[in-house]
Structures are given as structure tokens and as C-alpha cells.
Amino acid sequence: MEATAVSVGKAVLEGALGYAKSKAAEEIALQLGIDRDVAFIVDELEMMQSFLMTADEEQDKHKVFLTWVKQIRELAYNVEDTLMDFTLHSDKKPSCWCILHTLRERHDIAREVKDLRAKVEDVSNRNLRYQLIKRSGSNHSSVEEQTSVAAAAIFGIKEARHATFEQDKSKINLQQLIKSEEKDLRVIAVCGTSCNLGKTSEIRKAYDDQEVYKGFQCRAWVQLMSPFNPNKFFKDLVRQFQVYSREVNGKSEEGNAPGYDVLIELEKLESLGQSYFAKEVAVHVNTKRYLIVIDGLSSVVEWDWVKTYFPDKKNGSRIIVSTQQVEIAILCTEQPYQVTRVSDSTGPTSKSNRVTSSWNNSAISNSEIQEEEPKFMYSGIGNAFSSTGKKFERSRTIALVDDVLVGRKAEKSRIIDLICQPDHKQGCKVISVWGMGGLGKTTLVRSIYKSQQLCGWRRAWVTASRPFNREMLLRSVGLQLDKDIQENPVVANESHQEKKIMTKVEVQELIKQTLQEKKNIAMMGPQELIQKLTRFLETQKCLIVIDDLLSIEEWDSVKEIFAKANRIIVTTRGKDVAKYCSREDKNMYSLEGLKGDTALNLFKQKVFVENTEQIDLHSDHDMMEQARLILKKCDGLPLAISTIGGFLATKPKTTTEWRKMNDRINTELEINPELRTIKNVLLRSYDGLPYYLKSSFLYLSIFPEDHMIRQKRVVRRCVAEGYSKEMHGMIAEEVGNKYFDELFDRSMILQGEDVNIYGGKNYSFQLHDIMRQICISKAREENLVLTLEEGCSLCSTNGTIRHLAISSNWERDKDAFETMLDLSHLRSLTVFGNWGSFFISSKMRFLRVLDLEDTFGISDHDLDQICKLFHLKYLSLRGCENIHHLPDSIGNLRNLQTLDVSGTRISELPATITRVSKLQYLRANCVYVPREIEKLNALHTFGRVDVRHEEGIDTLKGFKHLMQLRKLAVVGLTAANSEEFWSAIASLKHLRSLSVNRDFPRIEFDCSLGGRLFPPIWIESLKLAGKLARLTEWIHHLQNLSRLQLRETELQQDAVWAIGNLPNLEILHMRFDSFLGKELLFVQASFPRLFQLVLLNMRHVTFVKFEDGTMPKLELLQADQWGEHWEGRQEFTGLRYLTKLKEIWLGSQISEEFKENVQNQLAEYPNNVSLKLMSRD
User: Fold this and answer.
1) pLDDT-derived band of residue 117, with 50, 70 and 90 as boundaries?
2) Boundaries of each NB-ARC domain copy (predicted)?
3) Domains 150-368 and 375-590 share a fold
4) How confident is the model at residue 428 (pLDDT cuts 50, 70, 90)?
């Protein structure tokens, strides 16, 4: 788990080095005579970067090391700022009268670089002085402590959320549990943190108790090593068994302490090998009553391994497990009341109580947690022979209460259907359940795993350990399958053999044979283990669950071994991992949050435990409003709903109490041990991010709660900040989009509502409220972002401010803003709500990003001050309706990369815009552009350009020279300029997205296309608005086209057939009279890759027919506003032929008769298609 400071430090260093090593920086350094100093600085920064890349996790937690990292980060910021400042000086062209001033500036620059070099040397030397970084040859590694909070997400156990014991009458000490008269083997778990002295002293007190000491014939206290080492484990057991035996029997020689004699004896036996010690342990535990303490258990996998060595001989033996994780404690114990939790405040007293369920806040009785004991009947000897076996050992069962699956019964049913569906393909079917932490993935899969519908399957459950250990995972699966087969040797195995009626004698013979062939899996070498597993999987019908898989690499390490398994279920937080494991979308299951009444029902179930406490929230408006606000914060997350509901169950059921919770819920999530688990579960997702994704994620703390964040906006900002850079043939914007797509795949951000309507990708997203709090908390720790909002105190502001966000509810205090904030190193300023003219000052000389999107009150005269921010790389005035003109001084922004003035009243760009030679992204609403637009040769996104004016032809000719253009939008194409336009863009080999709008209705703007002239063949996205007369003559050239949007194109059926032959078309939108016919026919073998079809405002169309074999991959179908020119029936036919269809969206203007027709067709549809009826709002 990499510290946030290290991740941010890596990202900042990368940015500083990127600029320091650029050609521009080298030229400037050479001109100013500081090239040697700059080279030295670059070399030192590169070495620091290498150190950070190799820093291990233990160092990440070292406070001195983290302080050094923060110093590196600040130094990197200063290096980059200084070098960029030199650029401004070098751009000046000195005249004779200011030559002395220029010389003085050069002298000042040289002195500043010397100072900077000295700082770099000093920071570098601190590493040597304090030995902060170990050499790369060091073999030191650390295993991160796993949090105990996973238990809350999986099991809903209250003890996983807080580690306190109540002083009550039910207090049971550890000695009493050990000395109980039960003859069965009992496992007692004691849970506490690593720094907790009470846990160890409590166990030691019980272990040394005289009655306990005399009550067992052999005993041992073993500290587990990570990774688990069987050799050492057996030797420790044998040594302590023999020491204890000598103590009891008094057999030490010559008065030596027992340990001395045993050590000498064991050294002599060392040559006998591991098998001797294993057999010696077996002799003791099979013939004697034993007491074993297992200290330091860190995973379920270790427990699955260890427990196989200790048989239950019904002689009252006991095992005490000491662990830091409540999840492990619960999984190890056979009775729920035996889980003991020691908190930091409890001291040496152990207070044992029954496990309390957070799902209903009442103790779970033993009867509520039962092991399944399915009976398999074999006929043929007159009476039925019953073979009963414990199908699920207690270490693999969970405290599952029905309400855990509130709102999940449909999901459970669908996944069980997926498991049970016959698979016509040979090989293993892998089903992936994915989604963000806290959604209940593991709980759902546990319920499926225990389902009686799967009683004929051999089953094994493993949780991927951290760090991942392939051998331990495989061994755990082998142990579970081996035990399952031995306890139930005969199970109907439909996948490998026919059902057979067996006699009792045959069953007994099979059991005998199985036991004879058994070899202790825990002792096998890796290759022998794999061979054993392969035999299991080839001969048995097996279901294997791999819980919490994090990466594709982890799956690659085991997939070949599990290739013969019938079914595998993987739970993961990452969509990319789920897709890689399952391969087919139909085997992927995205778990979503609870909606509406389902979330409310779960909340009420948690809060109102007793029937006497029930309150009708629907009749109590105030309480209902508070409940609604709580659920909004939970945002459908079952873990959050259950945990907060369980907490409120212990409080008075009043509006005041709930309002208090809403007012301080963010603070409670930070400090309340009962609620902190929610945040900790989600933190695991953050901790697993690579450093470059952490920087992008933390950057989102700038945006306010519930804000829908446009992906293009934040990506362009990240490019300007240096978080996203060109790499591997991808431009920086493509890399940035990839980063945020990955954050979505990792369930760190939630997709916006427009994901399916506009092209099948994320155009906007938002943060889950609790995930946003994590984002803000981590950004605050590193002093990355300062947000001015209601109630904030500027007095507590310290350190250098790099990113400033001004919230809409901040009071706009000019005096506080100007006197209490040091803005001299500010890099980004984002304003939400009303503008204040004092927000911009000359102090902000290093400002790179100025984001004023949708800001109210800014006007033209404010832009003059903005155009003095010479380092500016990103300027957004999007949605600022009072902006009418850009000043000529916009040409002074030589570093500007992004300019977004869409949504303003700007209709013409000034001539000086052509001086902004680094401009890459220019968005506006239908603007005229000046001559010499070809000077902006770095542009890759340009639109919307109006070419109707007199200079329009010059503009079109200028397009020929914009060789980096990837996206272009043009308005005002006419018959007169059409040929010039298509000729100009024909050579733009990087152009991938094109939008063209005609000047007047009825103008055929493709009249010049066909023959030798057609759109660039590498176009992937095409939007056309206007009549198309010759589409069939040129559309076939666009073999790479994947998105096509048509508007007012007035096509006939033959044109639709031509479009259907495009091999890579995935998305087709037909809007506003794009088709003139009454009947629209999609013929067989057409649209082979289309997955989204949108038909809107098709006023002439009344009938759409899908033939068998058309659109074999269509998943989404949307329709609205049809047949306005015609009376009578409007309908789809042939929906049954769309075999991959998942969703149909019907708009509010669709007739009831049409909707009824669709519903009737879907009733006979073989797949489960979702029908969404859009409202009129």
C-alpha cells in the first residue's frame, strides 16, 4: 500500500522532469548560460525519482521518509516553475534602451539557478544523512497489515466495526472457554491490533493457568511466519511438545532445563527430514488432548492450511487463534459466541460475548448459523442408505441472515442460473461479479455458494491473500476439495459420469479406496499439488470461488491450473479484471447499489429492530426527509446503509437525532469506530491504485458534492497540470481518457447518465459521496487542494497552496482572500457560483489552470486581467453567458493549450489568436475565425467553425495545414464551398472525428462526393446534418467508421442498406427526418457489429422491421417520436431476432399501443431484456 505522499511525489517529479528535459528548456538554459546547472538539477531529480520508484512499503510508512518525499515534491514544483519563468524572459526581444535591464535579469536568473541547485543538493544529501532509501539490492520486504474491516462488508458482524466490550453480566473469561466440558475440538479466536498488549497478556494468562496447564497432555504456542513455512511450524510444535513432556514427567538429564536437552535431541534428528517432524506431530495430536496457540494468523488461506493438522478426537482439545482481523476470527471459530475481541482500551481482561449481527443488532443464536448437512441417498439394498457429511466446514460458513440479501434475490437467482446453465463449449465457465467495495459482492456470492441448488457440486472458497500467494491459494483449494471428497465420497456427478445406483458395500469400498490414495496435500511440492488439483478438477464437478481478485496478473497465474474446473466465480472491484476472467459479457455481473424503496427498506430494517420501535416514515415528513438525506449520502451502498442504520438503532428514534447524524456524518465517518469501517473498506480500493491514478483521483477533490464532472473537462485539466503526458504513440488527452476509464473500471468513479445515449462511453461521471470524502481527506493530508466554502477557516490554512477551489456557498470575503492566502505558487483556480473580480491578482504568476465553467457574473472587462497570466495552459469560460468578446491580449497567452468558450456569446475570434501557437483544444459555438488559422498547427480539436462568411474559403484552405487535427466540427457548408471543404480535409491523416452541418435545409452538401473525392477513410466518428443525395457512392470507403449520427439527411432504404454493410459500425443514431420512408427495414447479415441503435423524431416512420440475422450484437435500442405525419399503427417487428439485446428505451412520445406491442414481444423473448419507459420530465 503506497503512501499518498509517495504517489503524489512521483507524479510531480515526473511533471518537473518532463519539462526540465524538454527541448525548450534545454534551449533556454543554453541561451542563459545555465545549462550545466540545469543538467545537474535534472540528474539529481532523476535519481530521486528512481529512489521513490523502488521505495518499499515499510519506508512509505516512515514519517521521516515521508517528510523527505514532501520536500522533494515542493522542490520539483519550484524547479518547474523557475524553468517556465525563464521561458518568459527568453521570449522577450530586448531593444537597445533596455539592454542593461536584460543583463540584470540574466544575472538574477543565474543566481536563482545557483540557489535552486544548492537546494537540490541539500535535499539529496538528506537521503544520505538519514539513510532514508535502502539500496536496490536490499531483499527487505514487508507484508502490509490487512485491515479487519472486510468482515463488515462480507459478514455484517458488528465486532468488525468496533472493538469494544460492554461491561455486562455475560462476561466470560478465556480460561472458562478453554476449560469447558465440551469434548469436541473447539477453536477460540482472540482479535486485537498488533500494538495491543491486552490480547497477548490475556492469552498468556489463560495459557499459564495451573488448571489449564494440568488439563492437557501436550501444548504449544506457535508464532506463524509469512509466508507460511510448514517445516518451521512442525519443528516448533515438536520442540514444545517435548519440552512440556519433560516438564511434566521430570525427565531432564543432569539437571538441565528441559529446553536444553530437547534442542540437542532435535539437532540429532534434523537429518531425518521434514517427514519425521510431521509424523511426530501427528502422533501427539492423534493420541493426546492438546492445547495449541496459533499466534499471528493473517489470512483464511493460512487457517485452511493449518487446521488440517489438528484432528477432532472428541477429547476436549482446544486451539486458540490470535489474529488482528475480525474476519479471520469469525471464520476460525466453530461457535459464534467464541469470538473474543480485545480493544486497545480493554487491558488484559477478556470479555467474551456472542457475535452480534450488524444486520439486525441482535445476538445471533446458534440455531441461526447452521452448517449444511445434505443427505445423499443410495438405493439398491432394500432400505435407503444415508450418507451424511458436513458439506461446509465452519471456517467457511458465514453469519448470514436473510436481510443481508435485501434487494439481491434477483441477482442471486440469475447467477445461479448462469452456473447451472449447460455450457455447449468445452472448458471452464468463469463468472465474474464486480463493483465497488461495500456493495456486498462477497455476501451475495457466499449466499450462492451455500445454496441448496448447488448441493451436487464439489466446492472450494479462497480469498486472495495480500500479497498474493499462488501456492497458498492452490493449496487451500486442494485441501477443501480433498476434505469434501473424503467426507462425501459419492456425489452425483452429472458432468463426468452417469448416475449409478450403488450398494452400501460399494460405497464403503469407495471410501476405503479414497482414504488409501490420500496424501497430505499440505506436504506436497508445487508440481505434485498442481497434478493433484488437475485430477480433482478432471473427475469432479467443481465450483471454485476466488474472492477479491485484484489484477489480471493474479488470474494469469492460476487460470491454466483451473482450466478443467466446471465453474469458477471471481469477485473483483475492477471491470477490466472481470472482463479478462470471464471473456464473455454474458458471464460478467456488475453489482449496482440499492435503489429507492429497496434502500429505504434495508435502512428501516437496520434502524427499527424491535417491532415496538416501528415508525411510519411516510406519515412523518420530517423524519422521512432526514432518512432521505442519510440514504443520499449512502448512495445505494448496502454496507453504508446497514452500518449507519445499525448505529442509529442504538439511538433515540427522533428527527433531532437523525438531523444530528446528517449534520456531522462526514466527521462521524472519520472518528466514530462504529462507522469508520465504511470508509476503510472503500480505502482498500484507493490504496490499490498505481501512483498515476492516485494523482488523477485526488484531483477530483476540487469538484463539489454531487457535481457531474465532464470527463473532457478534467482530462484537459490533467494535461495542463502534467498528470497526463504523451506516451506509446498516444497523445496526452488519450492517455488521460485511459486513466479515467481505468478509474471507472476500478469502481472509483460512477458513470454519468449519458453513458449510453451519446456514443456508448463515459462523457461525465461523479464520485460516490463517501468516496469523495476519502478523496478530500487524502488531498487535505498532502495539502494539495484548498476549498473555500461555507464555514471554512482561513486562519488554519498553512503551507503552499497549489490548487484553490472557490465554492458557490463561500461568502466572497475580499479582505480575507487578499490578506490571508498566499497565492504566489498557485497552479489552478476553479470557481463555482458567482464571480468576484478580486479572484485574479498579479500574485498568481504561476497559474496554469483557470476554470470558470458556468460561473455567473464574469464579463468582458475581467478578461484583460486574465490575459496577463502568462503561464496559463487551460482557460475555460464555458457557459459564461455574459462574455461577448475575447480581448486582443489573448495572444499573450503563449503557453495556452486549451481554450473553451462554448456557451458564451462569442461569435468571432480575434486575429491575435493565431499567436497562441501551442493551442491544442479550441471549443466555441459557431465562431468565425481569422485568416492564417494554419498557424495554429498544434490544434487537434477544433470546433465549431462557421465557414459561411466571406473569408470562409480561406478558413477551409487553412485546414489543409492543420495536420494534427483529430476532431473537427464545421457549420455552414454550402454547395459553393462543399468541394473546397472535402478537398481540404482529405489529407488530414490524424482526423478521427468529423461533424458537418449544412447552411440551409435541403442543401445537398455531399454533392461533390463520390468518384475520387470522399471523406478521409480513417474517420471513426461522423455526424452529418443536412440532405445527403449521394451517400451510397462514398459511404463504403469508410471501413473504419464506428459511430454515425444522421440528422435531416432524408435517406431512402438503399442508403440504409449501404450503411449496414460497414464492417465496424457500432453506434447508429438516426434523428429528425434522417429517413423519409414509412417502413424502415434492417435486412439479414447487415450491421454485423452494431450494439447501439437510436431512432428519434422519425416523423415519417411508422414501421421498423428487423429480419433474422440482422444486428447480431445489438444491446441497446432507443426510440421516441415516430409517425407524426401518419395516423395508425406504429410498431417494431422481429425483436426476437436481436439475440444480444439487453435494453430498450422508449420515450414519452411513443404511443401506448406501441409500448404494449413491444412488451408483448419481450414476453416471448428468450433473454431478460430491460424495458425503460422514459418520463415526460
Assistant:
1) confident
2) 174-335, 414-611
3) yes
4) confident
Share of the chain above pLDDT 90, in %: 31
Closest by alpha carbon to 669, among 775, 786, 803? 775
Lowest mean pLDDT among 65-69, 207-211, 745-749, 921-925: 65-69
Query: Higher model confidence: residue 314 or residue 261?
Result: 314
Report the 10 Å Cβ neighbour count for 1074: 26
- Count other Cβ atoms within 10 Å, centred on residue 177: 21
Looking at residue 1030, what DSSP letter applies?
A: -
Assign 269 to helix, strand or coil.
helix
Q: Looking at domain 150-368, which of 3.40.1350, 1.10.10, 2.60.40, 3.40.50 is its CATH number?
A: 3.40.50
Given a contact cutoff of 8 angstroms between Cβ atoms, the answer to whether 652 and 659 are in contact is no
Give 564-617 as a DSSP string.
T-SEEEEEES-HHHHHHHH-SGGGEEE-----HHHHHHHHHHHH--SGGG---T
User: What is the 3-state secondary structure of 1072-1097?
Assistant: CCCECCCEEEECCCCCCCCCEEEEEE
Taking the CA atoms of the chain, what radius of gyration do you get in angstroms?
35
**Dihedrals φ, ψ of 243, to 5°?**
-60, -45
**How much is the pLDDT for 98?**
46
Q: Is the peptide bond before 1015 cis (omega within 30 degrees of 0)?
A: no
Which overall architecture, per CATH, does domain 375-590 show? 3-Layer(aba) Sandwich (3.40)
User: Under a CB-based contact definition with an 8 Å cutoff, are residues 59 and 65 in contact?
Assistant: yes
Residues 6+ apart with CB under 8 A from 616: none
Tell the residue number behind the cell numbers 477551489, with chain if given: 805
Residues 6+ positions from 539 with CB-CB distance below 8 Å: 493, 496
Q: Is the pLDDT of residue 876 over 50?
A: yes
How far is residue 604's CA from residue 406's CA, in Å, rounded to a whole number?
11
Lowest mean pLDDT among 358-362, 887-891, 1120-1124: 358-362
Q: Where are the chain's structural domains? A: 4-130, 150-368, 375-590, 596-679, 689-782, 1046-1177
| Matching CATH number, 689-782, of 1.10.10.10, 3.90.1150.10, 3.40.50.300, 1.10.246.10 | 1.10.10.10
Q: What is the mean pLDDT of residues 241-250?
A: 76
Q: What is the dihedral of CA 236, 241, 244, 250, to 10 degrees?
A: -120
Residues 6 or more apart whose CB falls under 8 angstroms from that of 437 comprise 153, 573, 639, 681, 682, 684, 685, 747
The rounded distance, in Å, linking the Cα atoms of 582 and 629 is: 38
- In one-letter notation, the amino acid at residue 925 is N
Bridge partners of 352? Answer: 340
For residue 750, give the H/E element and its range. Answer: strand 750-751
Cβ neighbours of 635 (radius 10 Å): 20
Strand-pair category, 709-710 with 764-766: antiparallel
Kindly state the greatest CA–CA separation across the chain.
Answer: 118
